[in-house]
Amino acid sequence: MYRTAWRFAVGVEVSVEGLTKSFGSQKIWQDVTLTLPAGEVSALLGPSGTGKSVFLKSLIGLLRPEQGSIVIDGTDILQCTSKELYEIRQMFGVLFQDGALFGSMNLYDNVAFPLREHTKKSESDIRKIVMEKLELNGLIGAENKLPGEISGGMRKRAGLARALVLDPEIILVDEPDSGLDPVRTTYLSQLLIDINAQIDATILIVTHNINLARTVPDNLGMLFRKQLVMFGPREVLLTSEEPVVKQFLNGSKIGPIGMSEEKDDSQMAAELAMKEAGHHDGSQEVSGVVPQMQATPGMPVRQAVGRRQARVRSILHTLPPEAQQPILESLGDDQATQVIPAYNDSGAESSSWSHG
């Protein structure tokens, strides 16, 4: 058996500040500021066409924003030399939407490719690493198959195996549910959680899959109308009354997101009136903090959970009172029946909370 050794070094923090990206005269998003906490799983959400994949490609230096900074392990990749960018990229593993496998290579050679390209390891060492990653992704026995001979789900897992062979500290995952049915998407989500439990890597998932967004990541961010609407721990966004976030996470027609652009006030009022009259739009509104997917039994304790929950407790008093009780219940705190007032700088009670 080829067992991957568990390592517990925390992944690398990624700090983005004031990031703005355009293609010609078309602005994709502007002034995006967020921090991906080290060793945690984060997800970036948003309707189709909001530039989620553009953001992911910017993080690895495949696209270059016009303004702002992307600091990784103390280096701003928008200001560094080509040599420094090459070294920073060695910290990344990337799973693209289609797996991005070489069609003429079997799965073994696809997974081995980064090791042969970027290291001087012997073929025996390469074989040990490749077989470890293939086993981790449930692909033992398929190593001699070509990408065209396997299912979409297997191609995704092969792409993930290849993304892991250089032991990345940061893993970027672009639309993991693309081309997969809900069951295979859940299996792949479980695999990402288990990988985080084993190697404590920093993971960013770009998605518009509602179920994945609710149950998998530690942190959620939302892009809409060229802006980052919010970014923070899952507990905060899942209890948020921010209209765009609430609409998206419930898959509802009621809210600012329309078919092609932001709705005007009259359309929103008409849809709200229909809802109040009993018209059901097919969405399933979920209240409170839904349980998070856990690592498979036998895996190490996922350290990211404890770090995130400690951060949530530290900011709980700043959140709206109506959000505090469900968050406390999700944390399993004894004071879950209590509501902690939020106070402003003057000491007066306040229910406001700032968005990103």
Automatic annotation (TrEMBL):
Spans of biased composition, class Polar residues? 347-356
A single Gene Ontology molecular function, please?
ATP binding
User: Where would I find the ABC transporter domain in this sequence?
Assistant: 14-250
SUPFAM superfamilies, from UniProt? P-loop containing nucleoside triphosphate hydrolases (SSF52540)
**CDD domains (UniProt xref):** ABC_Org_Solvent_Resistant
Q: Which InterPro entries match?
A: AAA+_ATPase (IPR003593), ABC_transporter-like_ATP-bd (IPR003439), ABC_transporter-like_CS (IPR017871), P-loop_NTPase (IPR027417)
Renumbered to this chain, region (Disordered) spans: 317-356
Which Pfam families did the record assign? ABC_tran
Record's keyword terms, sorted: ATP-binding, Nucleotide-binding, Transport
Q: Which PROSITE patterns match?
A: ABC_TRANSPORTER_1, ABC_TRANSPORTER_2
* Protein name, as recorded: ABC transporter ATP-binding protein
Please tell me the species this chain comes from: Rhodococcus spelaei
